[in-house]
Design goal:
The chain is of the alpha/beta class. The chain has 5 helices and 8 strands.
């Protein structure tokens, strides 16, 4: 039986949130990923870097900016053996520099995507999906990348109706 996977990167701790820096116990993208898992019954997989990002928001941004500018692929704490069991993969991330965090590039480049359906979703404070859908299409050759969902990060905890409408429309 084919299954659904919800793979995501999310930042806990200090985040930019509705115009200020706040400490989040759970990242915004993780909240949305959990909603999708609840709606689809899919498996959740959190992408984590082997070396954690700086705890402070501004220091994290600087670290992520260097990765982005230098096209660095950070090592991951763990990966999946394969995606063979999955035909639908939701790919979630915060919008960093108008695309995904570089850790998501590391993850996506590891796998064969032929015949998979990808549904991107991101959280941001106003940047939407940026160019992330185009980046996913370049990386995930052979996959069908459907239109994604952008959720305002500060509203993520209350986005159930928005997420449910998108999931129903997409599946």
């Amino acid at each position: 039986m084919r299954k659904t996977l919800i793979v995501y990167y999310s930042r806990k701790g200090e985040n930019y949130y509705d115009g200020s820096i706040r400490n989040l116990e759970k990242g915004n993208t993780e909240r949305v990923a959990e909603m999708i898992a609840g709606l689809t019954g899919g498996d959740l997989f959190e992408v984590e870097t082997a070396k954690p990002y700086a705890e402070g928001y501004r220091d994290c941004v600087e670290q992520a900016k260097i990765e982005w500018q230098e096209n660095i692929r950070p090592a991951l704490k763990k990966t999946l053996e394969s995606l063979e069991a999955y035909d639908t993969v939701f790919v979630g991330y915060p919008n960093w520099f108008s695309t995904m965090p570089m850790a998501m590039f590391t993850f996506l480049e590891k796998y064969h995507w032929e015949g998979k359906r990808i549904l991107p979703f991101c959280t941001s404070e106003g940047s939407g999906l940026g160019r992330s859908e185009q980046d996913i299409k370049k990386i995930c050759v052979g996959a069908t990348v459907q239109p994604g969902l952008a959720v305002h990060g500060a509203s993520a905890a209350n986005a159930q109706a928005q997420v449910e409408a998108w999931v129903k429309q997409s599946l």
